[in-house]
Amino acid sequence: MKGSMKEDTLADYHPIALADILWGIFSGVVLREEVKKVINGSEGFVNGDFDMAFDIFIRGLQAAQN
Length: 66
Hints:
This protein has 66 residues and is mainly alpha-helical. Helix content is 77%, strand content 0%. Helix 2 (15-40) packs antiparallel against helix 3.
């Protein structure tokens, strides 16, 4: 993400839309982990899920730029 910001990869996108999407990814991962706790009674590995979610998001942005 830092590299994308330095390269102006995100400059073409509306900042409020980006904030909404990033917040949606974050809250979606957190909500899903809470549901897993209730259903399975076990702790999830949120950090790995965040890494994967944001990696997918960044790859999508990079693909759109190409």
